[in-house]
Amino acid sequence: MQDEASVRIEIISVGNELLIGKVVNTNASWMAKRATSLGTTVRRITVISDDVEEISTAVREAIKRKPRFIITTGGLGPTFDDKTLEGLAKALKQNLKVNEKALGMVKKRYEEYRKQGGTIDPELTAPRVKMATIPENAKPLHNPVGTAPAAIMNLRGTVLIALPGVPSEMEAIFEESIVPMLKKEAGGIVFFEASIFADSIMESTLAPLIDKVMHDNACVYIKSHPKSKENTPHIELHFSTTAKDEQTAKERIGKAIAQLSALTEANSGKIRTKVIR
Amino acid sequence: MQDEASVRIEIISVGNELLIGKVVNTNASWMAKRATSLGTTVRRITVISDDVEEISTAVREAIKRKPRFIITTGGLGPTFDDKTLEGLAKALKQNLKVNEKALGMVKKRYEEYRKQGGTIDPELTAPRVKMATIPENAKPLHNPVGTAPAAIMNLRGTVLIALPGVPSEMEAIFEESIVPMLKKEAGGIVFFEASIFADSIMESTLAPLIDKVMHDNACVYIKSHPKSKENTPHIELHFSTTAKDEQTAKERIGKAIAQLSALTEANSGKIRTKVIR
Fold first, then answer.
1. Using the beta-carbon criterion (under 8 Å), do B43 and A54 form an inter-chain contact?
2. Beta-bridge partners for A29
3. Which of B26, B45, B231 sits opposite A113 (nearest CB)?
4. Which of A7, A129, A204 is the best mutation test for B, with the most CBs of B within 10 A?
């Protein structure tokens, strides 16, 4: 999190359903976990409504912060409220154009459906052509499980990718097309995390002990997560680091865990559970 | 969502755990649902790391968009990585000061713990005083279930509130102190939503039908959520509206549901399940 040299990512989640609390943003946490595991750093997640102006503004703001990747989810489907590509076009001052390659992808998918189902009309109606209408400088990305292609474009120093919001489609495209890019950019950096649980010691007592261990272990980040009330303490202590290889990462985390465990026990705390991930 | 006259809210979630995908942001969706149910509109959710600069930047950006409320969660505890109040102070160019009322709240809580537990030292150590150290123009808000008080301050036209990240504490303070404010601001406006499920009709076929029903029912927002693949369609159709009373809202939604159900069935779709909330 603190490593400024790391590959920075911003996620923009588009969808009214996220802003009315109808849907929990598991897409963002799934991507954040996956991207972190590959050694990259998610710096910001922004959730906005299905509104061209809001999408355009959020994308422009993100571009100004110069992350290596901006990944949007949601708003690529056939209905009127799928407005992400329109928002991107506006942000980038580009026209929306029917992309022939994207149209081929959509067409192929409906023909497959027809072969499988029989009664489905594969005609390229306006809502279907809409899914292939992307900003003029964008390229489509193959969607292995759904109809709407994703879109990718290279800006100066930033790669902008628009993924669908249906989780199975988002995940499939992420694995197929984005994971290889992130791996390449991260250059073999690994993220490693582990948790232990401390009982019978208050978070306010733990605070200076955590400070000391972080001071003595420069590249390890420790965060306490209270799982109960301050006076009946059950606290998760989460250790994480980013390193050039797994052994270095594990050694660092192991050393910090040993030191904080000893300090906790010296202050009447109990280390009850150890979870290593 | 489209109503510009509505009371606008922004949520800022602070915490590395959200950006590494360790924790799903259920706090934001809980608040979004609760605020929406009271007739207010959440316009943006921003997730950032435990970093003073990031917090300060995100808060300044939110203030510029002039929402009526900005609510932050996370980062109010006793440890070094609880940096939200420092971030707010920086954003507002205010000093951090020990607030006597807040200190009284923290002190009272530890004395209660001592009475309940026996062995707990109620001494106001530095990490505990930290929880009562808030921006100089802020006031503390009572925390009914935890130790760290929340903080509130009035800016020009915007109320800025900092809540803890522990869900039980966040929810308790929200119910006790924020719900009455939102109710008053919303002035009796109600939000109403309902869903029906359509089978055997593809989203690309539904798209123009939804357009028509939204056109004919000006204040109703309809969003389709595919729950399966395009060729074996099972689609949730979510209807929502904001109205001055519940009866108006229910009548509007009922009329739109009836029209879209009829159109769907006329296009070989099946309305299988009806869920009214």
1. yes
2. none
3. B231
4. A204
Helix residue ranges, H only, chain A: 16-19, 26-37, 52-64, 84-92, 100-117, 126-130, 167-173, 179-186, 203-216, 246-266
What does A20-34 look like in DSSP terms, one character per residue?
Answer: TTSS--HHHHHHHHH
Using the Cβ of A9 and the Cβ atoms of chain B, whether some distance falls under 8 Å is answered with no
Name the β-bridge partners of A152: A139, A161
Compute the nearest-CA separation of B146 from chain A (Å): 6
Token pair 């939200």: residue = B84
Q: Which residues of B touch A206 (CB under 8 A)?
A: 79
pLDDT tens by residue, A188-218 = 888 999 999 999 899 999 999 999 999 999 8
**Whose structure tokens read 């942000």?**
A91
pLDDT of residue B6: 86
Q: What confidence tens digit (pLDDT) does each residue in B219-257 have?
A: 999 999 998 877 788 999 999 999 999 999 999 999 999
* Chain A touched by B18 (CB under 8 Å): yes
Q: Are A230 and B146 in contact (CB under 8 A)?
A: yes
Which residue in A has a C-alpha nearest to residue B240's C-alpha?
Answer: A20
Question: Is the confidence at residue A64, as pLDDT, over 90?
Answer: yes
Low-confidence ranges of chain B (pLDDT < 50): 1-2
CA A3, CA B128: separation in Å to the nearest integer?
Answer: 29
Distance CA B132, CA B96 (A): 10
Mean pLDDT for all residues in chain B: 92
Which positions ≥6 away from A218 have C-beta within 8 Å?
A: none
Q: Which of A30, A52, A79 should we substitute to test contact with B (largest number of B Cβ atoms within 10 Å)?
A: A79
With an 8 Å Cβ cutoff, is B193 touching chain A? yes
Q: Give tens-digit pLDDT for B129-139.
A: 999 999 999 99
Whether pTM exceeds 0.90 = yes
| Residue of B31, B22, B254 whose CA lies nearest to B163 | B31
Residue B99 one-letter amino acid? N
ipTM of the complex: 0.92
Please list, residue by residue across A1-17, b when 16 or more beta carbons sit within 10 angstroms of its beta carbon and e when fewer do: beeeebbbbbbbbbbbb
Cβ burial, residue A181 (10 Å; 0-12/13-18/19+): middle
